[in-house]
Design brief:
By secondary structure, the chain is an alpha+beta fold. It has three domains: 165 residues, Hnrnp arginine n-methyltransferase1 (Distorted Sandwich); 104 residues; 148 residues, Distorted Sandwich (Hnrnp arginine n-methyltransferase1), CATH 2.70.160. The chain is 21% helix and 29% strand. The strands form ten sheets. Strands 22, 24, 26, 28, 29 and 30 form a six-stranded antiparallel β-sheet that branches. A five-stranded antiparallel β-sheet has the order 5-12-9-1-6, with helices on one face.
Length: 539
């Protein structure tokens, strides 16, 4: 079925033309791997989601429709499927909305009486396949329109491509099963024209169109205006403070020169101020160096690795009228990635160093405190590391979902076979890539601060501590979800559990649930060692 889903949209389409004052040119097209047709590597042409738990939910814009039927006992049919040309399917729209994706699931017919469904409406262990929609002139559709798509299965993947929209005037033979048609679905001439117009792309005649493939988390980050505006404000404050300090130093120097050499000679020697050096070593695609370049006399360095990303950043710089060579790529200046943290020049230091502290999965980056220690030695007086410090928060919850997804429970669901003792030896104590906003759970306490990681002032770190948690509701504690507040300074904070966040959350799942009563207190032992966090309940 075709769906509207804001969560899928923000992870697969860049929905803004301006990021913290930086214009994104129309001739730069951002796509996620699931949207990309021509890639160097063979990648799955879809992503997956547990649609019943997607944050914000979804709206079905079409009825369910059958795409294909496959008989795995029919060898001839399987062979023909692999060579069958793409077929076109047209599906009528039943609800007005924004076309974000086509969601696919399967019904597995075991025999004439028994079947399994991976539908989002079923209680199932399977996720659904999601084919994000991209490259439409207008994503809003209405009743009477038809969603058109090409379906193929030529390279072991089910591909749904060239998704477009036709108006109610189109003559469309709808709802055809791809595998039951010998030839391509024939559309009326009006439908072909609608499809062509819907996919018509325009760009500047003198601009070369650039497609930039980003991970879905990188697209979500590009859509996160709070993140970029926060960094812009924090960088402006630091650079403004350093500028004032530099002006005072320059005035002192000028006064000394006038006293020693005379005003006539000193005026003839104009001093060109040195720029402020800003290094962004956050992982993946980032436009923070370009934002830094708008804040005065700044020499920003990006640590992006892929040539495609460098070309894209150069095009964005050019579109925003940056002087050539303003933005530099730091990895071209260092011998290897392991030595990325070093001085900008032998006699210079950094004004700002931006580090990646939290992984998109919700865990702390490996060796982040070691990187922070090196970074502090490379800062000029008054320079800052961003973020300056991070607070980790968590709460106690009762979540049967997390329990069942983390370990095999008993023998009832395994037909009496006692496989739990063996399988559960391999369970992971921390679940990652969680959406706390849609996780089925009952909060049993209010959020509490668990840990402080201070990148600028290491003696304020709390690598080992005990935290008392007040129980607000009776129940069974089964897990401790956690997230972070990243402080760029004491006033500017980024919440990794926020609605616009590109970060996910993580949770410690207890091996044995703990029964608690309202009014009681539990004591948590929190430890941070070598980039790993452990949370245990003191009994």
């Amino acid at each position: 079925m075709a769906v509207e889903c804001a969560e899928i949209r923000r992870h697969h389409r860049v929905g803004t033309k301006n990021v913290a004052g930086i214009c994104l040119p129309t001739y730069v097209k951002f796509q996620s791997p699931a949207c990309s047709v021509d890639t160097e590597e063979t990648v799955e042409p879809y992503t997956t989601e547990k649609m019943s738990r997607v944050p914000g939910g979804y709206l079905a814009l079409t009825e369910r429709f059958e795409i294909m039927t496959v008989d795995f006992n029919n060898l001839q049919e399987l062979k023909s499927l692999a060579t069958k040309k793409p077929g076109k399917i047209g599906i009528p729209v039943i609800k007005e909305g924004i076309l974000d994706a086509v969601v696919v699931w399967f019904v597995l017919q075991l025999d004439d009486e028994h079947s399994l469904s991976t539908s989002p409406n079923e209680e199932t262990c399977w996720e659904q396949a999601v084919y994000p929609v991209h490259d439409l002139a207008d994503y809003r559709i209405k009743r009477g329109d038809h969603v058109m798509m090409e379906v193929s299965c030529q390279d072991c993947y089910l591909r749904i491509q060239n998704i477009s929209v036709c108006g109610p005037e189109c003559e469309v033979d709808t709802g055809k099963n791809f595998t039951k048609n010998k030839d391509l679905l024939t559309l009326g001439s009006e439908a072909e024209l609608c499809s062509a117009l819907a996919n018509l792309q325009t760009s500047k005649p003198d601009a070369v169109e650039q497609t930039c493939i980003l991970e879905s988390t990188e697209i979500a980050l590009l859509n996160n205006n709070v993140y970029h505006e926060g960094f812009k404000m924090a960088m402006r404050k630091v650079l403004s403070s350093l500028t004032q300090e530099k002006l005072c130093q320059a005035m002192d120097t000028q006064c000394q020169n006038e006293m020693s050499c005379g005003s006539e000679e000193s005026n003839s020697q104009e001093i060109i101020p040195e720029p402020f050096y800003v290094l962004d070593v956050s992982e993946g695609f980032s436009i923070l160096p370009i934002i830094a370049g708008t804040l005065g006399r700044v020499k920003p360095y990006s640590s992006v690795e892929k040539d495609q990303h460098r070309i894209t950043l150069d095009l964005i710089s050019e579109a925003n009228h940056f002087p050539k060579e303003t933005l530099e790529f730091w990895l071209r200046h260092v011998e290897d990635e392991s030595s990325v943290l070093q001085r900008p020049k032998s006699d210079k230091l950094w004004s700002i160093i931006i580090l990646d502290v939290i992984e998109p999965s919700g865990l702390i980056q490996q060796e982040i405190m070691e990187k922070a220690a090196i970074s502090r030695c490379l800062l000029q007086s008054g320079g800052k590391i961003f973020p300056q410090y991070v607070l980790m928060f968590g709460l106690l919850v009762e979540s049967q979902t997390l329990v069942e997804e983390s370990a095999v429970q008993g023998t009832e669901r395994t037909l009496g076979l006692n496989i739990a003792p063996f399988i559960n030896q391999f369970q992971v104590p921390i679940r990652v890539f969680l959406d706390l906003s849609s996780l089925p759970c009952i909060p049993l306490s209010k959020p509490v601060e668990l840990l402080r990681l201070d990148l600028m002032t290491p003696y304020l770190n709390t690598s080992n501590r005990e935290v008392k948690v007040h129980i607000c509701k009776s129940g069974q504690v089964t897990a401790i979800p956690f997230w972070y507040h990243m402080y760029l300074d004491d006033e500017i904070r980024l919440d990794t559990s926020g609605e616009a966040s590109h970060w996910k959350q993580a949770a410690v799942v207890l091996e044995n649930p703990i029964q608690v009563e309202m009014g009681e207190e539990l004591v948590l032992s929190v430890q941070h060692h070598k980039s790993s966090v452990s949370i245990t309940v003191k009994q």
